[in-house]
Amino acid sequence: MKNMIQDILNGFKQRLDQTNQILVQSTQGYLYTSTITFNQEVVSSEQMDTFTQETGWVLPKDYQAFLAVHNGMKMFGGEWIGDIELFRMEEIVNWHDESVVPRDSFPIGYFPDVGAIMIDADRYKKGDVHYMWLSGIENYDLNCNFVEWLDRIIMAQGNAYWDWTGQRSAATYWEE
């Protein structure tokens, strides 16, 4: 799993220029330059074990593989939109609000104008490999694990790929 995370991140990094910037094409041909920030700290397995002991939240193996390479990152922010942020492990507890989300879920990041990027630890503990969801004005089940989400969000260049199906019909997308 660690190699897959590293492969995804290494492929992403190869697309960046010397200043960690990338030209992003968003919807309807909109182009913007985004700076990608990787937290160079790593999280040790001992720190992850301590986190689990203190919070009761089991960190999925694919998410652990990410933390072992980068303890957080920011990506795809631009002139008109904020960064998609993956929190540092230490920030997760500060972002968790039991009055808004279930106790067995925890936020690992934030997606601008959508909400918190969540892991459902209970689903993961029960062996469900589809444990990622978004908590916002409307909750949305992403139906994937962390490595799938990371791969998809990078391929989609920060666009909300989960909204693509059914968003517009072919007849309304192109109007003459």
Provide a descriptive summary of the structure in words.
It holds the Pfam family SMI1_KNR4. Residues 43-151 form the Knr4/Smi1-like domain. InterPro entries: Knr4/Smi1-like_dom, Knr4/Smi1-like_sf. This is Knr4/Smi1-like domain-containing protein. By secondary structure, the chain is an alpha+beta fold. It has a single domain (2-160), classed as SMI1/KNR4-like. 32% of the residues lie in helices and 22% in strands. It is built from seven helices and nine strands; from the N terminus they run αβββααββαββαββαα. It has helices at residues 2-14, 45-55, 61-67, 89-95, 121-125, 146-155, 170-173; strands spanning 21-25, 31-35, 37-38, 73-75, 84-86, 105-111, 115-120, 132-136, 140-141. The protein has a seven-stranded antiparallel β-sheet with strand order 3-4-5-6-7-8-9. A two-stranded antiparallel sheet has the order 1-2. Helix 1 packs across helix 3 (61-67) and helix 1 (2-14) packs parallel to helix 6. The longest helix is centred in the N-terminal third of the chain and has 13 residues, at 2-14. It starts with a helix and ends with a helix. The model has no long low-confidence stretch (mean pLDDT 89).
